[in-house]
Design brief:
Blueprint (H helix, E strand, L loop, with lengths): L4 H13 L4 E5 L5 E4 L2 E4 L8 H12 L13 E8 L3 E10 L2 E10 L5 H4 L4 H5 L5 E6 L6 H15 L3 E6 L12 E6 L7 H8 L6 E6 L3 H12 L3 E6 L4 H10 L6 H11 E11 L7 E9 L2 H8 L6 H7 L13 H10 L5 H7 L3 H11 L1
Parallel strand pairs: 7-11, 7-12, 8-9, 8-10, 10-11
Antiparallel strand pairs: 1-2, 1-6, 2-3, 4-5, 5-6, 12-13
Helix pairs in contact: 9-10
Length: 366
């Protein structure tokens, strides 16, 4: 007997009941959930077969008429609505002559800044009329959720036209004060480059792009910001310094001087985040964020007039920017979470830049 929808529904419901962020499905193994950052195997005596994994893929792609023979597919990204409960972003893949699927559980209701425990500075950052805002962090650090919350905040407060170009679409936004146009690469537009080119002709105020992976995607984002729009995107980097360094390194050596100038003019803010285990939080984790808003000092560092490492001291001194928006380093954010009882000293010391400096600071405050 094949893997039926009722089995799949039960699996997803168990994942939701246990607040799992991801579901891992692989041939010849039992399913596995990611809960609070850890991989937790589902208690079952049955392992999934190759055909069972394909049955699940058929359920996920049943409305997509463009997909051909599933047995020939090696990699596939997508997202589907799962009844009225959630959306599932999925990636199907093959490995070692086996197959598997990883599903990200995306809740239907977009959480607020307060529910996510995000920095209050985000409310000021998102008021910007133009420029590039980058949300950065490792896979699973909640970048997409933070972006969705930022878009929802704008949608609730301002009457703007927001265009998103996503691969795939994760959170579905309803119309509130803003008009939102969500476009999926491969379905609504051929690629990010075409999506942006035509978006600029659709009278946008705010454009949300996906991940900036290469020079072309960075140039697309810079172009949109330079034309007077507010642009939001993600980068797989750990903090402000690594984000700026990564973007500059995407350009050839003879292009980097110009890239530095364009980035210093366009970059409005970086919001870097990581998840820390928290027994006090309902979902078992707390977000720590490094907040950087560009000002004269940061611009000098981006252009190369000052050492890039100086950005950290600028952030830790609160930042100096035209919006008077408070900046904060990871260490400062982590220390605040510890003071408020959200995380333990042990978990805090694992996440800071220097455990020794952190413990000395802790001793001075006791």
């Amino acid at each position: 007997m094949g893997f039926e929808f009722s089995h799949f529904k039960s699996l997803v419901n168990v994942a939701i009941d246990n607040n799992a962020s991801d579901i891992h499905i692989r041939a010849e193994e039992t399913p596995c959930f990611r809960i609070n950052g850890d991989m937790v195997s589902v208690k079952s005596n049955k392992t999934l077969t190759t055909e069972s994994v394909l049955d699940i893929l058929r359920l996920l792609t049943k409305d997509n008429k463009q997909i051909g023979n599933l047995e020939d597919i090696k990699d596939l990204d997508g997202a589907v609505d799962f009844e009225d409960i959630c959306r599932l972003r999925f990636n199907y893949f093959r490995y070692n002559n086996k197959n598997g699927i990883v599903l990200r559980v995306v809740k239907k209701e977009i959480p607020s800044f307060k529910e996510l425990g995000l920095s209050d500075s985000l409310k000021q950052i998102i008021r910007a009329k133009r420029g590039l805002i980058l949300v950065t962090g490792a896979t699973g650090s909640g970048k997409s959720t933070t972006l969705a919350s930022m878009i929802d905040y704008i949608n609730s407060k301002r009457a703007k036209h927001i265009i998103t170009i996503e691969d795939p679409i994760e959170f579905i936004h309803t119309q509130k004060k803003s008009r939102i146009t969500q476009r999926e690469v491969g379905i609504d537009t051929e690629n990010f480059e075409d999506g942006l080119k035509f978006a600029l002709r659709q009278d946008p105020d705010i454009i949300l792009l996906g991940e900036l992976r290469d020079q072309k995607s960075v140039e697309i984002a810079l172009k949109a910001a330079e034309t007077g729009h507010l642009v939001l995107a993600t980068v797989h980097t750990t903090d402000a310094i690594s984000t700026i360094s990564r973007i500059i390194s995407m350009f050839s050596s003879d292009e980097q001087t110009e890239a530095r100038k364009r980035l210093s003019d366009a970059l409005y803010s970086t919001i870097s985040q990581r998840m820390i285990k928290s027994k006090k939080s309902p979902n078992g984790v707390r977000v720590a964020q490094e907040i950087m808003v560009t000002g004269p000092g940061v611009k000098e560092c981006i252009r190369g007039d000052e050492p890039i490492d100086r950005i950290l001291s600028i952030i830790e001194n609160g930042g100096t920017n035209s919006g008077d928006i408070p900046c904060e380093s990871f260490d400062q954010a982590i220390f605040t979470l510890l003071e408020r009882g959200y995380i333990t000293e042990e978990d805090a010391s694992k996440e800071v830049r220097s455990a020794g400096d952190f413990m000395r600071k802790l001793m001075l405050t006791k």
